[in-house]
Write a structure and sequence with these properties.
heterodimer, A: alpha/beta, Transcription Regulator spoIIAA, four-stranded mixed sheet, 13 helices, B: Rossmann fold
């Protein structure tokens, strides 16, 4: 075998055993590639009786190396330490020795590896339940603090900037009108379609107006607006406050003695509570127009007949019910968004999580509240 | 709140009033103890550095000092005032005498620089709009940001954000200034300018300054007192003037840190 062949040889390791000393002869090119020898074979050799007491290296045949060699040697080193074998690094190139020293300079932090493994199912369920109960506690605490802030607001003692409130109102109100009207119109159209197919079989197509009107005003208007707003505004609140948490802006308020709850959360909650009923009313109206569009264009109803029928079905209670729902949903969305923002961790991915959780939490709360309202209204016979 | 500007010039020795006293402080996250048995005193007019390797709890100690985290055990005193046992109202009153510069600047992103500096003035003083504007401009001028009043934080560079954060921190003429890694993310020249600014502010405001940093050049430029935290033993392993620590300390971990590992006999390896 001539010299050039040796140069391009892949890394090889040969073992020389003389009673208590194991000599490792490393040769060839030890560059990162698939065909580097694995250390496990060698580790098995180390375990064989009689266990060698010393390990020495001969690198005279080594023609090149990189981290491939270092990682191999580290593995060998660990195995040696476990078995109490003394390692003599004399034979290694100086660069390799320095890298090994550097890699071992900082001892592994105890406990750093915990959490790497997957916990058993029961433990995970337990963790999940515990986290959930802590989450509920946080929610209640946040709700309590917010109530105190609202109380201070009512007594005109709360610290916040009017311009922030105005900005939040702008964001939750006028800027949301476009998407709310689009969705409400489509929901009205869908409701009308669903009704039309069935009702026209009995020649009762005029009752499409009742269906759409009551459906929108009692539930769908508020519900659809709430879902749009939780995706649009709730997520924005969580992301904004979460980012402020990450950049320590919220800490800066706290340490200045300004309550971030009053300064940041209050304007947002107030804005959404104020704007939601208005948006709901607007959504009701647009939804009814959607229904009328179907009624006039498909069912040959006259617009005036459709509108007369719609108006005749309304009761005052329907309206109030819809508004109460809208306001409640608004409060819930703002609460979820701000809470998740405040609970945000200290990284950019935590901001994304906060936004996601805010949307999920607010939609769940809105649907649950919708159910509760249905039961309550039923009992009250509204 | 205006009595703090006229602090007398500082003379040497330990005659100066103890401004911050930390006694037997243990810091923990849940059950995980980060540091225990911390004891040190910061005197009026000191520039006190909290140093140690990455992740040893320097910033956490700062968060304890400004009340963002509760001690597991132990107490923090500001002169005779027990900060740890104080009520929320008492603490807020105390906090108003602090100025804090956060690692990222933490400027409120939806406000201009003048509004950032002016907000504490508007909230805690009786000044009118006009006066607030003037003072805010003055504070910005002090940190070299004259003319940037109407810029938003996102429109200026990182070093300028830091300085603007400093302007906000000194808005209420604080008695104590806290700095969390002031030179993080700054080039050596900006970082040096910031050091000079810190020294000037100490001399002009007469404030006590607490700095978290692991930048050796900064430490030796500004500090006259310090505490050295060690992650491994989970406690402080040295206090005092870092120059004296370098000259006289026999602890290999301290020596290694202060010489950037040039004396290689420490148990811990941290390249500060």
């Amino acid at each position: 075998m001539n010299a050039t062949q040796l140069q391009s040889q892949p890394g090889k390791v040969l073992l020389d055993r003389s009673d208590t000393t194991l000599m490792l002869r490393l040769s060839g090119r030890w560059h990162l590639s698939r065909d580097l020898p694995s250390a496990s074979q060698l580790v098995a050799e180390l375990a064989r009786q009689p266990v060698p007491r010393r390990l020495r290296f001969d690198t005279s045949g080594l023609s090149g190396w990189d981290s491939g060699l270092v990682s191999f040697l580290l593995e060998v080193e660990t195995a040696c330490r476990e078995r109490g074998i003394q390692e003599d690094r004399e034979g290694l190139p100086a660069g390799v020795r320095r890298l090994i020293e550097l890699a071992q300079a900082v001892p592994e932090k105890e406990g750093a590896r915990t959490g790497a493994g997957r916990a058993p199912l029961l433990e995970r369920v337990g963790d999940w339940v515990m986290a959930y109960s802590v989450g509920m506690e946080d929610f209640l605490a946040f709700f309590g603090e917010l109530s105190v802030a609202l109380n201070r607001f009512v007594r005109r003692k709360a610290r916040y900037r009017t311009i922030d409130l105005a900005e939040a109102v702008q964001q939750c109100g006028p800027e949301a009108v476009g998407i709310v009207s689009l969705i409400a119109f489509l929901v009205g159209v869908i409701l009308a379609f669903m009704g039309a197919v069935q009702l026209s079989q009995f020649g009762a197509s005029i009752y499409v107006a009742d269906l759409v009107g009551i459906g929108m005003v009692r539930d769908m208007g508020a519900m659809m607006t709430a879902i749009i707003m939780s995706g649009r505004t709730g997520a924005a609140f969580a992301a904004k406050l979460g980012t402020m948490k990450v950049t320590q802006e919220i800490d800066a308020f706290t340490t200045m003695g300004i309550s971030p709850l009053e300064f940041l959360v209050l304007p947002r909650v107030l804005a959404l509570i104020m704007m939601m009923p208005l948006l709901c009313l607007f959504a009701d109206l647009v939804g009814i127009l959607g229904g009328a569009f179907v009624g006039v264009s498909m069912l040959d109803l006259s617009l005036s007949a459709y509108m007369r029928e719609t108006i005749s079905t309304f009761t005052f209670a329907n309206f109030i019910g819809g508004l109460v729902k809208g306001t409640t949903y608004g409060g819930l969305i703002a609460l979820a968004g701000c809470l998740r923002g405040f609970q945000c961790g200290n990284s950019s991915s935590a901001v994304g999580d906060a936004a996601t959780q805010a949307v999920v939490m607010s939609i769940v709360m809105v649907v649950a509240a919708c159910g509760a309202f249905a039961v309550a209204f039923n009992i009250l016979r509204i | 709140m205006a009595d703090s500007t006229a602090a007398p010039a500082v003379s040497g020795g330990d005659q100066r009033e103890a401004h911050i006293v930390v006694r037997n402080l243990t810091m923990a996250y849940g059950d995980f103890v980060l540091m225990r048995n911390l004891n040190f005193t910061v005197r009026r007019g000191d520039i006190f550095v909290i140093m140690g390797g990455s992740g040893c709890g320097k910033s956490t100690l700062l968060r304890h000092l400004i009340g963002l985290k509760e001690p597991a055990t132990g107490e923090i005193f500001y002169r005779d005032f027990n900060f740890t046992a104080a009520s929320v109202e008492e603490r807020e009153a105390m906090l108003r005498r602090f100025g804090i510069l956060y690692q990222s600047g933490a400027l409120w992103s939806s406000m201009t620089l003048a509004e950032n500096v002016g907000l504490p003035l508007g909230e805690f003083t009786d000044l009118n709009e006009e006066q607030i504007k003037k003072i805010a401009s003055l504070k910005l001028a002090l940190v070299g940001l004259k003319g940037f009043e109407d810029f938003y934080p996102s429109e200026i560079s990182g070093g300028m954000q830091k300085r603007a954060g400093l302007a906000r921190a000194i808005a209420l003429d604080p008695e104590i200034l806290f700095f969390d890694e002031p030179s993080a993310g700054l080039d050596p020249i900006s970082s040096r300018l910031l050091d000079e600014l810190i020294l000037e502010l100490r001399d002009s405001l007469g404030a006590t300054i607490v700095v978290v940093t692991h930048e050796l050049p900064s430490i030796f430029t500004i500090a006259n007192n310090s505490v050295f935290l060690d992650a491994e033993s989970r406690t402080q392993i040295a206090t005092g003037d870092p120059h004296e620590m370098l000259a006289h300390s026999t602890d290999p971990r301290v020596r290694k840190f202060l010489t950037r590992g040039a004396e290689k006999d420490g148990a811990q390896n941290d390249h500060g």
